[in-house]
Amino acid sequence: MTDCVALIDKLYSTHHLDKAEYSALIKNGISHSDYLFTLSDKVRRENYGDDVYLRGLIEFTSYCKNDCYYCGIRCSNKQAERYRLDKEQILECCGTGYELGFRTFVLQGGEDPFYTDDIICDIVSSIKKDYPDCAVTLSIGEKSEESYRRYYESGADRYLLRHETADYEHYSKLHPVGLSAENRQNCLKTLKKIGFQTGAGFMVGSPYQTAENLADDMLFLEELKPEMVGIGPFIPHHATPFANMPQGTVELTLFMLGLVRLALPDVLLPATTALGTIHPQGRELALKSGANVVMPNLSPVSVRKKYLLYDNKICTGDESAQCRMCLQKRVESAGYRIVESRGDHAAYNERK
Ligand code: SAM
Ligand code: FES
Predict the structure, then answer these.
(1) Could you tell me the pLDDT band of residue 197, with boundaries at 50, 70 and 90?
(2) Model's pTM, two decimal places?
């Protein structure tokens, strides 16, 4: 019989388990979630107090050249409504966000060749010029080392690129030929090498995922040591090949957040919109399990429903100010407080 409490204690004190230990804990440990969350909340408080950082998410393009089987804006989804925001519209979102206290802007989109490196660099440097006290995060997929370097030189501070699943075979069940786990993982290593605060991550409950896959995800994170980890449940989208697959559970998603907090004590860990979509208190529960970041939507209301990665996505009808205030209340009700700062990774603050 697995002694889950002993495994949680071991992860807490050594920040490491082996694959068999992680697998056993993920398979058998959910009933010990409360114990895990006592420790993961303790560790988050030791590293970041009760601070919760804000990231303003600007979903600037719903065009994508990729065809990930799970994703609502995949290129084969002919029903998806497509839009692009230009530099002026993006700067307008930043202006609204700045007034609301945001000091990080996350530019996220499909892999859209319309935005050449020149265009991305121009957008990034314009934001940094207008808002020099803000961090810019890019989340625009797999690019060459040269492109990543150019983005960094134009002022981008951080880059989010979920590894999706560390297991090569599982990766190939979620993506068409041409997309590989190897390339995605190499991109992450390159981003770290260049100096980006780098975010990896994965969906919980993605089709065909096993406890061993999740164990490999944990080992991958232990090795990469990303500054940020994005974890949310898989949620089916009606016009994708995975329309009829079951969604990930709240319980396992929270459990994985707790494990990540123990493995990487000072990681920046968002309470994701996907978790808020499958449970009305999903984000509050995530904060209590070790998360310390929230990412309210700053995209113009007119386009929000078009960036539909999965069904029933929340916050698609609200103004940015409403989202900001709603999250403030949620964070406070969970016992934490929003801090209006860039919210850099602890090690980055020490380096400066
Ligand atoms: N194109 C960029 C990239 O590849 O990283 C950023 C956009 S992509 C839509 C952002 C993330 O959305 C993905 O990394 C994936 O984990 C998540 N995602 C996509 N479809 C999803 C779904 N059906 N359920 C939950 N998360 C999903
Ligand atoms: Fe490209 Fe989802 S398939 S963003």
Answers:
(1) very high
(2) 0.98
